[in-house]
Structure formats: C-alpha cells, structure tokens
Amino acid sequence: MDGERGARPVPTLAVVGRSGVGKTTLLAGVIRALRARGLRVGVIKHSRGFSDPDRPGKDSQVLREAGAQRLALASPDATVLFERHPGSEPSFAERLALVSHGVDLVLVESYRSADLPCIEVLRQGACEEPGFARRSPCLAVAADFTPPGVDRPVLPLNDPDAVAQFITRALGLA
Asked: Going residue by residue through the chain (174 aa), what tens digit of pLDDT does each one get?
C-alpha cells in the first residue's frame, strides 16, 4: 500500500465477542496474515483497566509522577506513549488518531461503544449465541461451528488467513 492516504480515513474494523472466545488469538493470526500481504496494521485493544506498565524508579516513571501529562518513551525501534486522563476517558476518535498514522488499516478489539463495522467471534462451548451479528454494522461472524440463524457470512475461526482475506475485500484493500 502507498501509505499516503491523504484526507481519506483509515479503514477500521472491530473484532467483538464475549470474553474468552478467542478474539485476541484470532486477531494475532489475522495481523500476521495481513502483514504477509504487505499491509501495515494498527490496533486498539480496549480494556476495563490494566496495571501501569512502567516500572517504579525508571526515569519515565519519575517524569510521569512529576506530572507530565504525556510522555513518549522513545528508542531506535519503538515508541511508547503514556497519557494521563483520569476521570475523562478520551473519545474513540482521539484514540484512533493515535494509531492510524502510517498504517493501512486499524483493527479494534472490544470497543463496543465505537459503532464500527465488525466481525463477531463465536466459539462452541463458550459463546454460541450471536449478540452483534443480528444488527448492523456487523459484516460477518468468525466461528468454529455453524451458528443457526445468522444471515451474515460465517468465517472459519481457526483460519486467520481466510478472515484476513475477507477483511481486505470488505475494506477495499485487496
């Protein structure tokens, strides 16, 4: 892909489903398959909360504790951004802006409030009843069984390459 998208928004797709159905496992495989196709992928993983990844006593942690609102920890091969926003969670658009620069598409895990086109993950024995696939903008279901009553394409959950192929076509990246 050319990487210069101009004013066009970066295609964005959510992978949704209940906890424990394999969203992250599917996404990891899909990302590898998309990278093999030459695509650059950004990811937003929504969480209810997590522990601070910075270690006490490190310079970056000292600077954050001193009150830095934003801190970029930069090395030759990676950049990590710490941003404080206690009591005022940023909008999805603000978070999307953080990861959409220089990528061909953004995949989002578990960001239900964003109202994005999505693929719902179902797993036999864990979650067999669709919650998203019966409403728009759900594009498909990825499942390890044939869910009854689903009027969307059913993709093979254990074949991330097939899911990646669907995504590239659905988002116009093929």
From this structure: 444 445 568 999 999 988 889 999 999 999 999 999 999 999 998 776 556 666 777 777 787 777 777 777 788 888 778 777 777 888 888 889 888 989 999 999 977 777 889 999 998 877 666 676 556 688 999 999 988 888 899 999 999 999 999 999 999 998
Domains of the chain with bracketed CATH: 12-50+89-170 (3.40.50.300)
**CA nearest 157: which of 145, 169, 174?**
145
Annotate 87-114 with b (16+ C-beta within 10 A) or e (fewer).
eeeeebeebbeebbeebbbbbbbbbeeb
Q: How many CB atoms lie within 10 A of CB 41?
A: 19
Strand order in the sheet with 12-16: 41-45, 105-109, 12-16, 118-122, 138-143, 154-156
Cα gap 45→25, rounded to integer Å: 13
> Phi and psi dihedrals of 127, rounded to 5?
-155, 105
The model's pTM:
0.83
